[in-house]
Design a protein that fits this description.
With about 500 residues, the chain is mainly α. The chain has 18 helices and 6 strands. The chain has helices at about 10-65, 70-75, 85-95, 110-125, 135-140, 140-155, 160-185, 200-210, 225-240, 270, 280-290, 315-330, 345, 365-375, 380-385, 390-405, 410-440, 450-489, and strands at about 190, 195, 295, 305, 350-355, 365. The strands form 3 sheets. The chain has a two-stranded antiparallel sheet. The two termini are about 35 Å apart. Mean pLDDT is about 85; it is low at about 1-5.
Length: about 500
């Protein structure tokens, strides 16, 4: 197999042993052929001698002489001219084939390094191709095909058919349509002169959030909404956190230096504070509470840690985590809401995004695009709307796979096939979202972050199940070697 690198020591030793076996087989074949020719010559000589013996007996009988016995012949000296000369013996030996063995067995009883040097020397002498798969050289084509077939039957993914392709296509079609018509963009309006479709689901979620947000005036609420609003206000009052800075300038603590963070303002303070991120906040928020600091990412992509005056609210990590979750709960229903997961991490990326935010304007850095998206309603509520696309696709593909494959769905072959189907589905949905974004005039708020996160997660899942499959294969190979060694004993 080209480019596979140098085979392992065990493979090289097996190739050398196979070469020695082939040489031994060839040598034995030569010996058998020579033995056969010698046997034929011996039979012919025996027949000739028998004919001479008969002729001698006939001659003695015709002459009326008695044939001398062995005792009488022993004392007769044979003339040197009648014996085989040294030159004739040398000529006879030269005509004999060379039956000396042309192979040697490496000595594995001593130093392993020396043994491998001898193995490599044999491979070089025999011209063994080290780039080819050793199994292809150790086994016959029929044996290789049999091994491949058996491993495919045991570990290969279940084969795809027209139904599988059809379900993946259906899931992609449903997801693309939902992305275009249901997810759309958070707030609608226009972008660079192109009309934007607003998401009906996100609009509904924002409408349901308004009565639950802290404050909210004399808005009419039912009992359940009033109860939730009371819980939100209690969480807001209790969960005071050091990373909740909303504006530059002096803080409520006169002992603190004025805050100076580029781009910090109330509308964006939750975005630029990783502590407010629904996922990253479980780490950064806890750290900020325990250290009594505020971590922010300014509009230039620089991370800043602001020391707060006084003692930390708590030094207990579980309590700090509870405070983060309660603070999230108090912010989730506000007009700006919480940012979508991992958006804060992209604020540190200052590379060119390829997106322009105004007609005829230049492309802007990634962090500017993220700030634009959040300011235009791209929050956790819209992320929940975006999640409809990958969730619907996953539900459709997984349900079909469970029904179609039955008991095989839980096997390694079934899980590999499911991972492949989901990877193909999410990749096509991500591509469809790029097409949708183009149709929306390359409005970055049309991007479906939930779909791209699902694609990344599925790639890791596909890698994980592939590694598990490889582990099962290695275990099967180890068991096979053990069985071969047991049979050899």
């Amino acid at each position: 197999m080209a480019g596979r690198g140098k085979p392992a020591e065990g493979e090289r030793a097996a190739l050398a042993q196979r070469a020695q076996i082939d040489a031994l087989s060839g040598h034995l074949g030569s010996l058998q052929a020579h033995a056969g020719s010698l046997g034929q010559a011996t039979a012919e000589q025996a027949k000739g001698l028998a004919d001479i013996e008969a002729q001698l007996a006939s001659l003695f009988a015709a002459a009326g002489l008695e044939r001398p016995g062995e005792a009488e012949l022993e004392g007769i000296a044979v003339s040197a001219s009648l014996q085989v000369s040294a030159g004739e013996e040398a000529a006879l030996r030269a005509r004999l084939p060379d039956l000396a063995p042309q192979w040697r067995v490496p000595d594995a009883s001593g130093d392993w390094t020396a043994y491998m040097r001898e193995v490599d020397a044999i491979l070089a002498e025999r011209g063994i191709d080290m780039e080819r798969d050793p199994f292809e050289q150790l086994l016959t084509p029929a044996q290789v095909a049999g091994v491949v077939r058996r491993f495919d039957d045991a570990f290969g993914p279940l084969p795809w058919d027209a139904w599988d392709y059809g379900v993946v296509g259906l899931a992609v079609l449903v997801g693309v349509l939902a992305d275009y018509f249901i997810v759309a963009t958070p707030l609608g309006g226009t972008f660079k002169g192109v009309a934007q479709r607003g998401s009906p689901v996100t609009t509904w979620l924002r409408e349901q959030s308004a009565p639950l947000a802290p404050g909210g005036g004399a808005m009419e609420r039912n009992k359940f909404q009033a109860w939730i609003k009371w819980l939100v206000e209690q969480a807001e009052e209790y969960a005071k956190v050091p990373y909740d800075l909303a504006r530059n300038g002096a803080t409520s603590n006169p002992l603190e230096a004025p805050v100076k963070v580029a781009g910090l303002r109330p509308a964006l303070h939750r975005l630029i504070s990783p502590g407010h991120d629904p996922i990253l906040g479980l780490v950064f928020g806890v750290i900020d509470i325990l250290r009594n600091t505020c971590t922010l990412v300014d509009q230039h992509g620089a991370w800043q840690v602001i020391e707060r005056q006084g003692d930390p609210v708590t030094s207990d990590p579980p309590e700090a985590l509870a405070l983060v979750l309660l603070h999230h709960f108090s912010d989730i229903f506000t007009a700006q809401g919480l940012p979508a997961p991992f958006m804060s991490a992209f604020l540190g990326v200052t590379a060119d995004s390829g997106f322009s935010l105004r007609e005829g304007g230049p492309s802007v850095p990634v962090n500017d695009v993220v700030r634009f998206m959040y300011a235009n309603g791209y929050d956790l509520r819209h992320f929940m709307t975006m999640s409809i696309v990958p969730a619907a696709a996953e539900l459709l593909v997984r349900a079909y796979h469970a029904v179609r494959c039955g008991p095989d769905a839980a096997s390694i072959r079934g899980r590999v096939k499911l991972a492949q189907m989901l990877a193909a589905t999410h990749a096509l949905l991500a591509s469809g979202n790029l097409v949708k974004t183009a149709l929306y005039g390359w409005n970055p708020a049309a991007l479906n972050l939930a779909q791209f996160l699902a694609l990344g997660k599925q790639m890791f899942s596909l890698l994980g199940v592939a590694l598990e499959r490889d582990r099962h294969m290695q275990e099967a190979l180890a068991e096979g070697w053990a069985d071969l060694l047991e049979e050899a004993r």
